[in-house]
Design a protein that fits this description.
heterodimer, A: mainly alpha, 69% helix, globular, B: 220 residues, mainly alpha, 82% helix
Protein backbone atom coordinates (compact mmCIF):
# COMPACT_ATOMS: atom_id res chain seq x y z
CA UNK A 1 0.00 0.00 0.00
CA UNK A 2 2.78 2.38 0.99
CA UNK A 3 4.55 1.53 -2.23
CA UNK A 4 1.48 2.39 -4.28
CA UNK A 5 1.12 5.71 -2.48
CA UNK A 6 4.80 6.50 -3.03
CA UNK A 7 4.47 5.68 -6.70
CA UNK A 8 1.34 7.81 -6.86
CA UNK A 9 3.13 10.85 -5.40
CA UNK A 10 6.05 10.34 -7.76
CA UNK A 11 3.65 9.96 -10.66
CA UNK A 12 1.85 13.14 -9.70
CA UNK A 13 5.17 14.98 -9.82
CA UNK A 14 5.83 13.64 -13.33
CA UNK A 15 2.35 14.75 -14.40
CA UNK A 16 2.79 18.09 -12.68
CA UNK A 17 5.90 19.08 -14.63
CA UNK A 18 4.21 17.98 -17.84
CA UNK A 19 1.17 20.08 -17.08
CA UNK A 20 3.03 23.15 -15.90
CA UNK A 21 5.76 23.42 -18.54
CA UNK A 22 3.69 25.06 -21.34
CA UNK A 23 2.00 27.26 -18.76
CA UNK A 24 5.38 28.66 -17.64
CA UNK A 25 6.35 29.36 -21.25
CA UNK A 26 3.01 31.05 -21.83
CA UNK A 27 3.38 33.09 -18.66
CA UNK A 28 6.86 34.35 -19.62
CA UNK A 29 5.58 35.30 -23.09
CA UNK A 30 2.57 37.10 -21.61
CA UNK A 31 4.68 39.08 -19.14
CA UNK A 32 7.12 40.01 -21.89
CA UNK A 33 4.27 41.20 -24.08
CA UNK A 34 2.75 43.26 -21.28
CA UNK A 35 6.14 44.79 -20.48
CA UNK A 36 6.41 46.04 -24.04
CA UNK A 37 2.82 47.34 -23.80
CA UNK A 38 1.36 44.72 -26.09
CA UNK A 39 -1.71 42.67 -25.32
CA UNK A 40 0.07 39.38 -25.94
CA UNK A 41 -1.34 35.93 -26.56
CA UNK A 42 -3.31 34.18 -23.87
CA UNK A 43 -1.37 32.44 -21.16
CA UNK A 44 -2.63 29.04 -22.32
CA UNK A 45 -1.67 29.65 -25.93
CA UNK A 46 1.26 27.14 -25.80
CA UNK A 47 -1.23 24.33 -25.03
CA UNK A 48 -3.30 25.29 -28.07
CA UNK A 49 -0.16 25.43 -30.21
CA UNK A 50 0.87 21.98 -29.06
CA UNK A 51 -2.60 20.54 -29.74
CA UNK A 52 -2.70 22.10 -33.18
CA UNK A 53 0.74 20.75 -34.04
CA UNK A 54 -0.20 17.30 -32.76
CA UNK A 55 -3.18 17.18 -35.12
CA UNK A 56 -1.18 18.27 -38.13
CA UNK A 57 0.40 16.00 -40.67
CA UNK A 58 4.14 15.37 -40.52
CA UNK A 59 6.06 16.52 -43.56
CA UNK A 60 9.37 14.76 -43.94
CA UNK A 61 12.28 15.59 -46.16
CA UNK A 62 12.98 12.90 -48.76
CA UNK A 63 16.42 12.09 -47.42
CA UNK A 64 15.43 12.12 -43.73
CA UNK A 65 16.74 9.02 -42.00
CA UNK A 66 15.36 7.04 -39.04
CA UNK A 67 17.47 9.28 -36.82
CA UNK A 68 15.49 12.33 -37.86
CA UNK A 69 12.22 10.59 -37.06
CA UNK A 70 13.25 9.11 -33.73
CA UNK A 71 15.13 12.13 -32.36
CA UNK A 72 12.03 14.08 -31.18
CA UNK A 73 10.88 11.14 -29.06
CA UNK A 74 14.33 10.69 -27.55
CA UNK A 75 14.70 14.42 -26.84
CA UNK A 76 11.27 14.57 -25.25
CA UNK A 77 11.81 11.44 -23.16
CA UNK A 78 15.21 12.42 -21.75
CA UNK A 79 14.08 15.95 -20.99
CA UNK A 80 10.91 14.73 -19.32
CA UNK A 81 12.80 12.26 -17.16
CA UNK A 82 15.26 14.95 -16.15
CA UNK A 83 12.51 17.45 -15.36
CA UNK A 84 10.54 14.90 -13.36
CA UNK A 85 13.56 14.04 -11.21
CA UNK A 86 14.08 17.55 -9.82
CA UNK A 87 12.17 17.94 -6.56
CA UNK A 88 9.33 20.36 -7.15
CA UNK A 89 6.97 20.27 -4.19
CA UNK A 90 8.54 17.54 -2.05
CA UNK A 91 11.91 15.92 -1.41
CA UNK A 92 12.59 12.28 -0.79
CA UNK A 93 10.13 10.90 -3.32
CA UNK A 94 10.30 7.29 -4.44
CA UNK A 95 12.74 7.87 -7.28
CA UNK A 96 14.67 10.66 -5.62
CA UNK A 97 17.76 8.49 -5.25
CA UNK A 98 18.17 8.88 -9.01
CA UNK A 99 17.85 12.66 -8.84
CA UNK A 100 21.57 13.22 -9.01
CA UNK A 101 22.87 16.50 -10.39
CA UNK A 102 25.48 14.84 -12.55
CA UNK A 103 22.86 12.47 -13.94
CA UNK A 104 20.72 15.49 -14.78
CA UNK A 105 23.57 17.13 -16.66
CA UNK A 106 24.14 13.87 -18.53
CA UNK A 107 20.46 13.52 -19.46
CA UNK A 108 20.32 17.06 -20.80
CA UNK A 109 23.61 16.50 -22.60
CA UNK A 110 22.25 13.45 -24.40
CA UNK A 111 19.09 15.35 -25.39
CA UNK A 112 21.32 18.03 -26.88
CA UNK A 113 23.36 15.38 -28.67
CA UNK A 114 20.25 13.92 -30.39
CA UNK A 115 19.10 17.39 -31.31
CA UNK A 116 22.43 18.36 -32.87
CA UNK A 117 22.51 15.10 -34.83
CA UNK A 118 18.94 15.57 -36.05
CA UNK A 119 19.77 19.12 -37.08
CA UNK A 120 22.48 17.86 -39.40
CA UNK A 121 20.56 14.85 -40.66
CA UNK A 122 18.63 16.38 -43.54
CA UNK A 123 21.66 18.27 -44.77
CA UNK A 124 20.31 21.78 -45.10
CA UNK A 125 22.79 24.49 -44.28
CA UNK A 126 20.65 26.07 -41.54
CA UNK A 127 20.52 22.84 -39.61
CA UNK A 128 24.28 22.56 -39.79
CA UNK A 129 24.81 26.12 -38.61
CA UNK A 130 22.37 25.61 -35.77
CA UNK A 131 23.99 22.36 -34.67
CA UNK A 132 27.51 23.72 -34.74
CA UNK A 133 26.49 26.80 -32.75
CA UNK A 134 24.52 24.74 -30.27
CA UNK A 135 27.49 22.49 -29.68
CA UNK A 136 29.79 25.49 -29.35
CA UNK A 137 27.53 27.00 -26.70
CA UNK A 138 27.20 23.64 -24.98
CA UNK A 139 30.94 23.15 -24.80
CA UNK A 140 31.15 26.30 -22.70
CA UNK A 141 27.93 25.87 -20.75
CA UNK A 142 28.47 22.30 -19.65
CA UNK A 143 31.78 22.80 -17.79
CA UNK A 144 30.31 25.85 -16.08
CA UNK A 145 27.28 23.82 -15.05
CA UNK A 146 29.44 20.97 -13.75
CA UNK A 147 31.62 23.33 -11.73
CA UNK A 148 28.50 24.88 -10.24
CA UNK A 149 27.39 21.37 -9.35
CA UNK A 150 30.74 20.78 -7.66
CA UNK A 151 30.43 23.98 -5.62
CA UNK A 152 26.96 23.04 -4.43
CA UNK A 153 27.98 19.44 -3.82
CA UNK A 154 31.01 20.50 -1.75
CA UNK A 155 28.77 22.62 0.46
CA UNK A 156 26.08 19.99 0.83
CA UNK A 157 28.33 16.95 0.83
CA UNK A 158 26.22 15.21 -1.80
CA UNK A 159 25.17 15.53 -5.43
CA UNK A 160 21.72 14.21 -4.71
CA UNK A 161 19.09 16.90 -5.02
CA UNK A 162 16.94 15.84 -2.07
CA UNK A 163 19.94 15.90 0.28
CA UNK A 164 21.12 19.22 -1.14
CA UNK A 165 17.70 20.78 -0.61
CA UNK A 166 17.63 19.56 2.98
CA UNK A 167 21.12 20.87 3.73
CA UNK A 168 20.37 24.20 2.10
CA UNK A 169 17.20 24.73 4.08
CA UNK A 170 18.95 23.96 7.36
CA UNK A 171 20.35 26.99 9.15
CA UNK A 172 24.03 26.08 9.39
CA UNK A 173 24.87 26.78 5.77
CA UNK A 174 25.02 30.49 6.54
CA UNK A 175 25.95 33.25 4.18
CA UNK A 176 28.37 31.97 1.58
CA UNK A 177 29.88 34.01 -1.19
CA UNK A 178 30.55 30.78 -3.11
CA UNK A 179 26.86 29.95 -3.23
CA UNK A 180 26.09 33.42 -4.55
CA UNK A 181 28.59 32.90 -7.34
CA UNK A 182 27.18 29.45 -8.04
CA UNK A 183 23.71 30.97 -8.28
CA UNK A 184 24.82 33.56 -10.81
CA UNK A 185 26.76 30.99 -12.81
CA UNK A 186 23.74 28.70 -12.87
CA UNK A 187 21.44 31.51 -14.01
CA UNK A 188 23.84 32.35 -16.84
CA UNK A 189 24.05 28.71 -17.87
CA UNK A 190 20.27 28.40 -17.70
CA UNK A 191 19.86 31.41 -19.97
CA UNK A 192 22.28 29.96 -22.51
CA UNK A 193 20.85 26.46 -22.35
CA UNK A 194 17.27 27.58 -22.77
CA UNK A 195 18.14 29.79 -25.74
CA UNK A 196 16.86 32.89 -23.98
CA UNK A 197 17.61 36.41 -25.09
CA UNK A 198 21.19 37.51 -24.64
CA UNK A 199 22.33 34.24 -26.20
CA UNK A 200 19.55 33.30 -28.59
CA UNK A 201 16.10 34.65 -29.29
CA UNK A 202 13.40 32.00 -28.98
CA UNK A 203 10.82 34.09 -30.82
CA UNK A 204 12.66 34.80 -34.05
CA UNK A 205 13.37 33.10 -37.34
CA UNK A 206 16.11 35.48 -38.33
CA UNK A 207 18.69 33.35 -40.06
CA UNK A 208 21.83 35.10 -38.91
CA UNK A 209 21.19 34.86 -35.22
CA UNK A 210 19.17 31.76 -34.59
CA UNK A 211 20.58 28.72 -32.89
CA UNK A 212 17.83 26.58 -31.49
CA UNK A 213 15.29 27.48 -34.19
CA UNK A 214 17.79 26.67 -36.95
CA UNK A 215 18.12 23.09 -35.78
CA UNK A 216 14.42 22.39 -35.72
CA UNK A 217 13.59 24.22 -38.92
CA UNK A 218 12.90 20.97 -40.79
CA UNK A 219 10.48 19.59 -38.23
CA UNK A 220 6.72 19.74 -38.49
CA UNK A 221 3.58 18.23 -37.01
CA UNK A 222 3.84 16.04 -33.94
CA UNK A 223 7.65 15.98 -34.14
CA UNK A 224 7.75 19.75 -33.79
CA UNK A 225 5.19 19.57 -30.99
CA UNK A 226 7.39 17.15 -29.05
CA UNK A 227 10.49 19.31 -29.51
CA UNK A 228 8.69 22.48 -28.46
CA UNK A 229 7.27 20.64 -25.48
CA UNK A 230 10.76 19.45 -24.56
CA UNK A 231 12.03 23.04 -24.80
CA UNK A 232 9.41 24.29 -22.34
CA UNK A 233 10.10 21.30 -20.08
CA UNK A 234 13.75 22.32 -20.07
CA UNK A 235 12.85 25.86 -19.01
CA UNK A 236 10.72 24.45 -16.20
CA UNK A 237 13.55 22.11 -15.24
CA UNK A 238 16.06 24.92 -14.81
CA UNK A 239 13.55 27.02 -12.90
CA UNK A 240 12.78 24.19 -10.50
CA UNK A 241 16.48 23.36 -10.19
CA UNK A 242 17.28 26.92 -9.13
CA UNK A 243 14.25 26.94 -6.84
CA UNK A 244 15.22 23.59 -5.33
CA UNK A 245 18.87 24.44 -4.65
CA UNK A 246 18.82 28.13 -3.85
CA UNK A 247 15.38 28.68 -2.35
CA UNK A 248 14.34 25.32 -0.87
CA UNK A 249 11.69 26.71 1.46
CA UNK A 250 8.52 24.79 2.23
CA UNK A 251 9.56 21.69 0.36
CA UNK A 252 7.56 18.87 1.91
CA UNK A 253 9.66 16.06 3.34
CA UNK A 254 9.17 12.40 2.49
CA UNK A 255 6.59 11.31 5.08
CA UNK A 256 4.62 14.55 5.21
CA UNK A 257 0.92 14.24 4.59
CA UNK A 258 -1.11 15.57 1.68
CA UNK A 259 -1.50 18.96 3.38
CA UNK A 260 2.27 19.51 3.34
CA UNK A 261 2.34 18.38 -0.29
CA UNK A 262 -0.36 20.91 -1.10
CA UNK A 263 1.51 23.72 0.69
CA UNK A 264 4.69 22.70 -1.12
CA UNK A 265 2.85 22.75 -4.43
CA UNK A 266 1.43 26.23 -3.86
CA UNK A 267 4.83 27.59 -2.78
CA UNK A 268 6.40 25.94 -5.83
CA UNK A 269 3.90 27.74 -8.07
CA UNK A 270 4.85 30.98 -6.34
CA UNK A 271 8.54 30.36 -6.98
CA UNK A 272 7.84 29.63 -10.66
CA UNK A 273 5.87 32.86 -11.01
CA UNK A 274 8.73 34.76 -9.38
CA UNK A 275 11.41 33.21 -11.58
CA UNK A 276 9.32 33.52 -14.74
CA UNK A 277 8.66 37.17 -14.02
CA UNK A 278 12.36 37.83 -13.36
CA UNK A 279 13.25 36.09 -16.62
CA UNK A 280 10.76 38.18 -18.57
CA UNK A 281 12.01 41.44 -17.05
CA UNK A 282 15.61 40.47 -17.74
CA UNK A 283 14.84 39.53 -21.32
CA UNK A 284 12.99 42.76 -21.96
CA UNK A 285 15.76 44.86 -20.46
CA UNK A 286 18.68 43.37 -22.35
CA UNK A 287 19.65 43.16 -26.01
CA UNK A 288 20.76 40.04 -27.78
CA UNK A 289 24.52 39.71 -28.06
CA UNK A 290 26.50 38.64 -31.06
CA UNK A 291 27.06 34.90 -31.36
CA UNK A 292 30.80 35.38 -31.03
CA UNK A 293 30.38 37.11 -27.72
CA UNK A 294 28.61 34.09 -26.25
CA UNK A 295 31.90 32.38 -25.31
CA UNK A 296 32.79 35.48 -23.28
CA UNK A 297 29.42 35.45 -21.54
CA UNK A 298 29.72 31.77 -20.70
CA UNK A 299 33.39 32.20 -19.89
CA UNK A 300 32.29 34.58 -17.16
CA UNK A 301 29.91 31.90 -15.88
CA UNK A 302 32.73 29.37 -15.93
CA UNK A 303 34.99 31.79 -14.08
CA UNK A 304 32.33 32.52 -11.48
CA UNK A 305 31.75 28.87 -10.73
CA UNK A 306 35.50 28.13 -10.65
CA UNK A 307 36.03 31.04 -8.28
CA UNK A 308 33.14 29.82 -6.17
CA UNK A 309 34.75 26.40 -5.85
CA UNK A 310 38.11 27.95 -4.98
CA UNK A 311 36.71 30.35 -2.40
CA UNK A 312 35.00 27.46 -0.70
CA UNK A 313 38.39 26.33 0.54
CA UNK A 314 38.88 29.42 2.69
CA UNK A 315 35.50 29.27 4.31
CA UNK A 316 34.81 28.24 7.85
CA UNK A 317 34.08 24.60 7.49
CA UNK A 318 35.87 22.42 4.93
CA UNK B 1 27.37 35.60 16.43
CA UNK B 2 30.91 34.52 15.68
CA UNK B 3 29.66 32.47 12.76
CA UNK B 4 27.68 35.35 11.33
CA UNK B 5 30.51 37.85 11.73
CA UNK B 6 32.82 35.47 9.92
CA UNK B 7 30.27 34.91 7.17
CA UNK B 8 29.80 38.62 6.53
CA UNK B 9 33.56 39.25 6.52
CA UNK B 10 33.95 36.31 4.14
CA UNK B 11 31.23 37.69 1.89
CA UNK B 12 32.78 41.15 1.71
CA UNK B 13 36.33 39.94 1.18
CA UNK B 14 35.16 37.43 -1.44
CA UNK B 15 33.25 40.28 -3.06
CA UNK B 16 36.53 42.21 -3.37
CA UNK B 17 38.15 39.33 -5.22
CA UNK B 18 35.09 39.05 -7.47
CA UNK B 19 35.21 42.78 -8.25
CA UNK B 20 38.90 42.44 -9.12
CA UNK B 21 37.83 39.86 -11.69
CA UNK B 22 35.12 42.18 -12.96
CA UNK B 23 37.80 44.81 -13.49
CA UNK B 24 39.81 42.36 -15.54
CA UNK B 25 36.69 41.59 -17.60
CA UNK B 26 35.84 45.19 -18.55
CA UNK B 27 36.65 46.54 -21.96
CA UNK B 28 35.59 50.16 -21.47
CA UNK B 29 37.62 52.66 -19.46
CA UNK B 30 34.62 54.39 -17.89
CA UNK B 31 33.02 51.19 -16.67
CA UNK B 32 36.43 50.15 -15.37
CA UNK B 33 36.49 53.31 -13.27
CA UNK B 34 32.97 52.71 -12.01
CA UNK B 35 33.87 49.19 -10.96
CA UNK B 36 36.99 50.50 -9.28
CA UNK B 37 34.82 52.88 -7.27
CA UNK B 38 32.56 49.94 -6.40
CA UNK B 39 35.57 48.00 -5.15
CA UNK B 40 36.49 50.92 -2.91
CA UNK B 41 32.96 50.99 -1.50
CA UNK B 42 33.08 47.26 -0.77
CA UNK B 43 36.51 47.71 0.78
CA UNK B 44 35.17 50.45 3.03
CA UNK B 45 32.32 48.15 4.07
CA UNK B 46 34.74 45.29 4.76
CA UNK B 47 37.00 47.51 6.85
CA UNK B 48 34.06 48.97 8.75
CA UNK B 49 32.82 45.44 9.47
CA UNK B 50 36.26 44.52 10.79
CA UNK B 51 36.21 47.62 12.97
CA UNK B 52 32.87 46.51 14.36
CA UNK B 53 33.98 42.91 14.90
CA UNK B 54 37.39 43.71 16.37
CA UNK B 55 35.97 46.62 18.34
CA UNK B 56 38.69 48.86 16.95
CA UNK B 57 37.31 52.36 16.34
CA UNK B 58 40.38 53.62 14.49
CA UNK B 59 39.51 51.24 11.64
CA UNK B 60 36.41 53.34 11.01
CA UNK B 61 38.78 56.14 10.04
CA UNK B 62 40.47 53.78 7.60
CA UNK B 63 37.09 52.89 6.12
CA UNK B 64 36.23 56.58 5.80
CA UNK B 65 39.54 57.31 4.08
CA UNK B 66 38.94 54.44 1.65
CA UNK B 67 35.44 55.67 0.93
CA UNK B 68 36.25 59.33 0.38
CA UNK B 69 39.60 58.95 -1.32
CA UNK B 70 39.17 55.89 -3.48
CA UNK B 71 35.45 55.74 -4.09
CA UNK B 72 34.98 59.43 -4.85
CA UNK B 73 38.09 61.55 -5.35
CA UNK B 74 40.31 59.26 -7.42
CA UNK B 75 37.58 57.91 -9.78
CA UNK B 76 36.30 61.44 -10.43
CA UNK B 77 39.84 62.67 -11.04
CA UNK B 78 40.53 59.77 -13.40
CA UNK B 79 37.29 60.50 -15.25
CA UNK B 80 38.41 64.05 -15.82
CA UNK B 81 41.88 62.89 -16.82
CA UNK B 82 40.41 60.61 -19.49
CA UNK B 83 38.25 63.46 -20.76
CA UNK B 84 41.17 65.85 -20.89
CA UNK B 85 43.46 63.33 -22.51
CA UNK B 86 40.72 62.66 -25.04
CA UNK B 87 41.87 59.08 -25.42
CA UNK B 88 40.09 56.13 -26.89
CA UNK B 89 37.61 54.71 -24.44
CA UNK B 90 38.46 51.09 -24.95
CA UNK B 91 40.84 49.18 -22.78
CA UNK B 92 43.70 47.85 -24.82
CA UNK B 93 44.90 44.52 -23.55
CA UNK B 94 48.16 42.76 -24.28
CA UNK B 95 46.57 39.31 -24.37
CA UNK B 96 42.91 38.33 -24.74
CA UNK B 97 40.47 38.74 -21.88
CA UNK B 98 39.82 35.00 -21.63
CA UNK B 99 43.51 34.27 -21.19
CA UNK B 100 43.82 37.02 -18.58
CA UNK B 101 40.89 35.52 -16.68
CA UNK B 102 42.52 32.09 -16.71
CA UNK B 103 45.76 33.59 -15.44
CA UNK B 104 43.75 35.36 -12.74
CA UNK B 105 42.12 32.10 -11.65
CA UNK B 106 45.56 30.54 -11.50
CA UNK B 107 46.82 33.40 -9.33
CA UNK B 108 43.85 33.05 -6.98
CA UNK B 109 44.49 29.33 -6.63
CA UNK B 110 48.17 30.02 -6.03
CA UNK B 111 47.62 32.61 -3.33
CA UNK B 112 45.00 30.50 -1.58
CA UNK B 113 47.32 27.50 -1.57
CA UNK B 114 50.20 29.60 -0.29
CA UNK B 115 48.35 31.57 2.36
CA UNK B 116 46.38 28.66 3.74
CA UNK B 117 49.57 26.71 4.18
CA UNK B 118 51.58 29.56 5.68
CA UNK B 119 48.95 30.71 8.16
CA UNK B 120 48.00 27.39 9.75
CA UNK B 121 46.99 27.94 13.34
CA UNK B 122 46.12 31.62 12.96
CA UNK B 123 42.65 32.96 13.70
CA UNK B 124 40.28 31.94 10.89
CA UNK B 125 39.19 35.51 10.16
CA UNK B 126 42.74 36.82 9.74
CA UNK B 127 43.64 33.78 7.69
CA UNK B 128 40.81 34.28 5.26
CA UNK B 129 41.42 38.03 5.05
CA UNK B 130 45.10 37.52 4.30
CA UNK B 131 44.48 35.01 1.54
CA UNK B 132 41.84 37.19 -0.13
CA UNK B 133 44.11 40.22 0.24
CA UNK B 134 46.92 38.40 -1.55
CA UNK B 135 44.45 37.49 -4.31
CA UNK B 136 43.48 41.15 -4.76
CA UNK B 137 47.12 42.26 -4.77
CA UNK B 138 48.12 39.68 -7.36
CA UNK B 139 45.10 40.47 -9.54
CA UNK B 140 46.02 44.16 -9.38
CA UNK B 141 49.53 43.30 -10.49
CA UNK B 142 48.13 41.13 -13.29
CA UNK B 143 46.03 44.05 -14.41
CA UNK B 144 49.08 46.33 -14.50
CA UNK B 145 50.97 43.76 -16.55
CA UNK B 146 48.28 42.98 -19.10
CA UNK B 147 47.06 46.50 -19.89
CA UNK B 148 48.77 48.77 -22.36
CA UNK B 149 46.93 51.92 -21.46
CA UNK B 150 48.54 53.89 -18.64
CA UNK B 151 45.16 54.86 -17.14
CA UNK B 152 44.11 51.26 -16.63
CA UNK B 153 47.55 50.54 -15.21
CA UNK B 154 46.89 53.21 -12.60
CA UNK B 155 43.57 51.54 -11.78
CA UNK B 156 45.44 48.25 -11.38
CA UNK B 157 47.87 49.92 -9.01
CA UNK B 158 45.07 51.41 -6.93
CA UNK B 159 43.26 48.10 -6.65
CA UNK B 160 46.53 46.51 -5.55
CA UNK B 161 46.57 49.04 -2.76
CA UNK B 162 43.01 48.01 -1.84
CA UNK B 163 44.35 44.52 -1.26
CA UNK B 164 47.04 45.90 1.04
CA UNK B 165 44.47 47.76 3.12
CA UNK B 166 42.42 44.58 3.42
CA UNK B 167 45.48 42.66 4.61
CA UNK B 168 46.33 45.39 7.10
CA UNK B 169 42.89 45.44 8.67
CA UNK B 170 42.74 41.68 8.90
CA UNK B 171 46.10 41.54 10.65
CA UNK B 172 44.84 43.44 13.72
CA UNK B 173 46.71 46.37 15.09
CA UNK B 174 48.12 48.39 12.25
CA UNK B 175 48.58 51.88 13.72
CA UNK B 176 46.42 54.63 12.34
CA UNK B 177 49.44 56.79 11.54
CA UNK B 178 50.75 54.17 9.13
CA UNK B 179 47.32 53.87 7.58
CA UNK B 180 47.00 57.61 7.01
CA UNK B 181 50.50 57.89 5.61
CA UNK B 182 49.80 54.99 3.22
CA UNK B 183 46.63 56.70 2.06
CA UNK B 184 48.49 59.93 1.44
CA UNK B 185 51.37 58.26 -0.32
CA UNK B 186 48.82 56.66 -2.64
CA UNK B 187 47.35 60.08 -3.28
CA UNK B 188 50.79 61.50 -3.96
CA UNK B 189 51.56 58.57 -6.25
CA UNK B 190 48.31 59.24 -8.05
CA UNK B 191 49.21 62.91 -8.57
CA UNK B 192 52.73 62.05 -9.73
CA UNK B 193 51.43 59.42 -12.14
CA UNK B 194 48.79 61.86 -13.33
CA UNK B 195 51.39 64.50 -14.13
CA UNK B 196 53.51 61.79 -15.68
CA UNK B 197 50.59 60.73 -17.88
CA UNK B 198 50.31 64.19 -19.39
CA UNK B 199 54.07 64.29 -19.92
CA UNK B 200 53.94 60.94 -21.71
CA UNK B 201 51.12 62.17 -23.88
CA UNK B 202 52.95 65.39 -24.75
CA UNK B 203 56.08 63.51 -25.63
CA UNK B 204 54.63 60.53 -27.53
CA UNK B 205 51.07 61.61 -28.46
CA UNK B 206 49.64 58.50 -26.80
CA UNK B 207 49.27 56.90 -23.39
CA UNK B 208 49.92 53.46 -24.79
CA UNK B 209 53.02 52.34 -22.94
CA UNK B 210 54.03 50.26 -25.95
CA UNK B 211 55.25 53.53 -27.46
CA UNK B 212 57.79 53.86 -24.69
CA UNK B 213 59.65 50.80 -25.94
CA UNK B 214 60.73 52.64 -29.04
CA UNK B 215 62.44 55.41 -27.13
CA UNK B 216 64.25 52.79 -25.11
CA UNK B 217 65.73 51.38 -28.29
CA UNK B 218 63.70 48.18 -28.43
CA UNK B 219 62.93 47.10 -31.94
CA UNK B 220 59.16 46.97 -31.65
Amino acid sequence: MALILDLLVQGSQMALVLALAPLLTGFVRKVKARLTRRQGASIIQPYRDLLRLLRKEVVLAQNASWLFRSAPYLIFATTWVAAALVPTFATGLYFSWTADLIALVALLGSARFYQALAGMDVGTSFGGIGSSREVMIASFAEPAMLLTVFTVALVAGSTQLSTIAEVMSSSHVGLRVSLGMALFAMIMVAIAENARIPVDNPATHLELTMVHEAMILEYSGRHLALIEFAASLKLLLYCSLIACIFMPWSLASAEAGPVAYLVGGVVYLGKLVLLGFALAVFETAIAKMRVFRVPQFLGAALMLSLLGTLLLFVSRTL
Amino acid sequence: MNGLSFDVAHLLAGGLVLISFMMLYQDRLYSLLNIFAMQAVVLALAVAWQAFVQDAPHLYVTALIALVLKAIIIPVALHRTIERLGIHREVETVVGIGLTMLAGIGLVALSLLLMLRVTIGVDALAREDLSFALCVVLLGLLMMVTRRNAVSQIVGFMSLENGLVLAATGAKGMPLVVEISVAFSVLVAFIVIGVFLFRIRERFDTVDVGALHRSRGDSE
